[in-house]
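tokens incoming
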């Protein structure tokens, strides 16, 4: 049985037809062609599939696609705006925080949510916020530095690390 689901993904309203038991991850990757969220553990424990659902980091692998109806979904692709990377994305590049890159989109999503809630976190708060994201390469120190760098850049620039949330679904 298939369902029609209307959802806003990266600022663009879309309607997708999907199986009643389809995960949001499957719809994002297979139906909408977004490759940022990745399949990792399939249990919502590793963070590779994290997206923002109404601003909250959510494991899309276990989130039923039909439950996304009427919600605002933001993937890592939707964070950049106006041709500029989101401050967290830029900080990840500047700190060389992505080694293999598999966890990066989920880490970025969790970091963006943290900085929206707490614009000037401590290193301990960053570690706690990223606790649900696994990096098997061991780049954790660089990732924490990147999040702190993004927080400092947003504060110094008078802006917010929450900027750059609009984008288009691909």
């Amino acid at each position: 049985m298939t369902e029609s689901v209307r959802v806003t993904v990266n600022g663009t309203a879309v309607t997708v037809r999907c199986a009643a038991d389809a995960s949001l991850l499957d719809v994002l990757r297979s139906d909408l062609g977004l490759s940022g969220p990745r399949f990792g553990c399939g249990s919502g424990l590793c963070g590779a599939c994290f997206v923002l659902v109404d601003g909250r980091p959510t494991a899309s692998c276990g989130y039923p696609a039909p439950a996304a109806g009427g919600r605002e979904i933001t993937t890592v692709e939707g964070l950049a705006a106006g041709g500029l990377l989101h401050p967290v994305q830029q900080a990840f590049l500047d700190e060389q925080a992505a080694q293999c890159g598999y966890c990066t989109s989920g880490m970025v999503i969790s970091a963006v949510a943290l900085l929206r809630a707490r614009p000037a976190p401590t290193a301990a708060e960053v570690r706690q916020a990223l606790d649900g994201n696994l990096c098997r390469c061991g780049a954790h120190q660089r990732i924490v530095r990147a999040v702190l760098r993004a927080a400092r850049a947003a504060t110094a620039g008078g802006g917010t690390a929450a900027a750059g949330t609009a984008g288009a679904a691909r």
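note: The chain has two domains: 2-78, 87-156.
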